[in-house]
Amino acid sequence: MSDMIEIRWHGRGGQGVKTAATLLAEVALNEGKYGQGFPEYGPERMGAPMRGFTRLAEEPIHIHCGIANPGTVIVLDNTLLGLSGLDVTEGMPAGGTLVVNINQTPEEIKHLIPRTDLRVFTVDATQIAIDEIGRPIPNTPMIGALVKATGVIKLETVLEDIDRKFGKKFPAKVIEGNKKAIIRAFEEVRG
After folding, report:
1. What is the DSSP pairing of strand 49-57 with strand 72-75?
2. Distance between alpha carbon 99 and the CA centroid of its chain, in Å?
3. Cα dihedral sign, 51-179-170-57
4. How far does CA 44 lie from the centroid of its chain?
5. pLDDT at position 84 over 80
6. pLDDT tens column, 31-73
7. 82: phi > 0 → left, psi -120 to 50 → alpha, else beta; which?
8. What pLDDT does residue 2 have?
């Protein structure tokens, strides 16, 4: 399916990789698209490297496997850049989009990325999460940065979906904090 958008998420257990991957797929459904989001666990412990996957398409998605050639990669934990045995850019095509949670500019992190043919964006999602949500969980701010960097989903749809998805399990303060974090990351992403 040539019009399918494939996104691979890299992070550590407890950072919200699974939530972000599945939430983005659910948002796509609310825009009339098809979406698929799921995690891939390694050692199941807090802090262990893990991946998540999101597929978005205009037509039904008939495959369900990990994503080997993502057009976009989201890195929730910048310590994974340059980690021995892990290349977060593996399989990305030239011109692909890499969004990294780090408090530096794309220019300042060039030495951490093994390729020069990618569109690189950075945002300090952890600090945004601390400021707006009160916890260092960067997943929702990274969705805001992804939306700005790629335009795969509308910001308004993401914010509406946060109300729907989080409304049943979190207090209003947490919901508003997540929405503010998404908006800030959307506005502050650099690339």
Report:
1. unpaired
2. 8
3. negative
4. 20
5. no
6. 999 999 999 876 556 778 899 999 999 999 999 999 999 999 9
7. left
8. 57
Q: Which CATH fold would you assign to the domain 5-188?
A: Pyruvate-ferredoxin Oxidoreductase; domain 3 (3.40.920)
- Is 72:7 a contact under the CB 8 Å cutoff? yes
Per-residue b/e over 111-137, b at no fewer than 16 CB within 10 Å? ebbeeeebebbbbbbbbbbeebbeeeb
Mean pLDDT, residues 172-188: 96
pLDDT at 1: 46
Buried residues in 37-60 as b, exposed as e (16+ CB within 10 A)? bbbbeeeeeeeebbbbbbbbbeee
Dihedral sign computed on CA atoms, order 97, 93, 83, 15: positive
Which residues on neighbouring strands pair with residue 35, listed in sequence order? 56
pTM: 0.94
Q: What is the pLDDT of residue 48?
A: 83
Look up residue 10 and give its two tokens: 């890299």
Is residue 118 within 8 Å of 100, Cβ to Cβ? Answer: no
